[in-house]
Design goal:
The complex is a heterodimer of chains A (249) and B (188).
Chain A (H helix, E strand, L loop, with lengths): L10 E6 L8 H9 L19 E6 L9 E6 L11 H5 L5 E3 L6 E3 L9 H5 L5 E3 L26 E3 L4 H13 L13 H5 L5 E5 L6 H6 L4 E2 L11 E4 L3 H7 L4
Parallel strand pairs in A: 1-10
Antiparallel strand pairs in A: 1-8, 2-3, 4-5, 6-7, 9-10
Chain B lengths: L1 H36 E4 L7 H6 L5 H4 L14 H8 L7 H11 L21 H7 L20 E4 L11 H10 L12
Antiparallel strand pairs in B: 1-2
Classes of the chains: A alpha+beta (249), B mainly alpha (188).
């Protein structure tokens, strides 16, 4: 891993696939929190925007061996040294990894919409705005004021609700602190999960819940053999799910 | 003789034309164009910072305060004005208009911002004022002895005021003070 490794911060997430019921609350919370617009017809998944996609998995066997699982997938905020694949290819520096937090950001106003990052991303975590965002009448007044809306022709992706990090910092500052307590900064999806399947925190803090879970023998990451070092870990006791995670096509 | 004089005259005329043209171009570039580019907007009513501090004994934080969650209140809402100006108590025309045009119909005052930033810029006041201990006047004009609120010059093309802070000013200071210059510090 790059950056300040010793006492630094690496925000990461652990998602317990065994606990996930596939209710999609995380995906809805994400969409609302981050002002992601939607269209009347969202059936074309090559054109729709879902920062947090929930994949449906099954083991391909028929009853009684049939098993079903759901896998929520935010941006995995890869810790690839020295750069994540998406930021490495950006010709205009519109996306970078903040080495102080490990979060991979994307600045839509700087983006020229070349979509190189979309093809570089191994996880389909980036989306292109094919249209200007539009909301039905009352919803335009319900947008999150701390997230700027995007325009047609730019790429966007999960930011791990970085605006919530800034708000948590403001709260800490007014109380005279520079350090955040665990749980003060949590993305909308983690907060919304009714099954408590998602855990978020500093992976470098050995006392944090997320660091303990990431070291579990049941922990795995998606397409680990690519060496992208994602900071989103998954937990499952079931072998067929763990095998699917590294199923290179 | 005539030949040489003619040559001399045309040279002088050329210089004269050049000077007039140059001065004219400078006038257009420095005076006419900025006038055309910027509109001047005036505040709906004049707010006298000095009189509120000296006669009413208000401090800056009475109106421009931090909320408990660390967010910044910015310009006060009408409710802050109503606390004292429910009825006319002075003799100024601006106060009369405040009561008749805004307080009585319960309408917020549409103050014109001197420092409005684009939608995708997020500035944390608490980080700068409390943690970095910067004075307000580093970025804003000093209003302590201000009697009349100055007009706001607004760029016709962009819609932003002339005093808007540019990104390189933020970046320079962040680099000097060894603060993160990552994009998501200010843009999200």
């Amino acid at each position: 891993m790059s950056g300040n490794k010793a006492n630094g911060i690496r925000y990461g997430m652990v998602i317990d696939v065994d606990k996930c019921t596939g209710c999609m609350a995380c995906s809805v919370a994400c969409q609302q929190e981050n002002n992601v617009s939607f269209r009347e017809d969202e059936t074309n998944k090559l054109r729709s925007i879902t920062w947090l996609e929930v994949y449906s998995l099954d083991n391909g066997k028929s009853y009684p061996e049939h098993r079903q699982a759901y896998l929520p997938r935010p941006c995995l905020h890869c810790d690839t040294p020295p750069y994540p694949p998406c930021t490495f290819v950006c010709p205009v520096n519109a996306t970078q990894r903040d080495e102080e937090t490990g979060l991979v950001n994307h600045i839509p106003v700087r983006c020229i919409g070349c979509r190189y990052c979309i093809s570089a991303c191994s996880y389909h975590a980036r989306y292109f705005n094919w249209w200007d965002p539009k909301w039905p009448k009352p919803m335009e007044e319900m947008l999150t004021p701390d997230v700027s809306t995007r325009m047609r022709g730019v790429v966007e992706k999960c930011t791990m609700c970085v605006h919530r990090l800034q708000l948590a910092k403001e709260k800490a500052f007014i109380e005279g602190r520079r350090e955040l307590h665990e749980g003060e900064y949590v993305p909308a999806c983690v907060e919304a999960c009714p099954a408590k399947a998602m855990t978020f925190g500093n992976l470098f803090d050995s006392h944090s819940e997320v660091a303990k879970l990431a070291k579990s023998p049941h922990a795995f990451r998606l397409l680990e053999r690519l060496g992208t070092e994602p900071k989103v870990y998954y937990l499952s006791t079931q072998d067929w799910i763990r095998k699917l995670s590294d199923n290179v096509i | 003789m005539t030949e040489e004089n003619k040559k001399h005259d045309s040279g002088l005329l050329g210089w004269l034309l050049f000077v007039v043209g140059f001065a004219g171009a400078l006038f257009v570039g420095w005076v006419v164009f900025p006038q055309l580019l910027y509109t001047t907007e005036y505040q709906p009513i004049n707010y006298n910072h000095q009189i509120h501090q000296e006669e009413a004994g208000l401090s800056c934080e009475d109106c421009h305060y931090f909320r408990e969650d660390g967010t910044y209140a910015g310009k006060p809402m009408l409710s802050a004005c109503v606390e004292c100006h429910g009825e006319v108590q002075g003799e100024t025309e601006d106060e009369e208009r405040l009561v008749s045009e805004f307080v009585e119909p319960e309408k917020e005052i549409p103050w014109v911002s001197y420092t409005r930033q684009p939608d995708n810029v997020f500035f944390s006041h608490v980080a700068h004022v409390k943690m970095a201990e910067m004075a307000c006047s580093v970025c804003h004009r000093d209003v302590e002895n201000e009697i009349k609120a100055p007009p706001v010059k607004i760029n016709r093309l962009t819609g932003y005021p002339i005093e808007i802070m540019k990104m390189h000013v933020c970046e320079d200071c962040h680099a000097r003070e060894n603060v993160s210059n990552s994009c998501d510090t200010c843009h999200h």
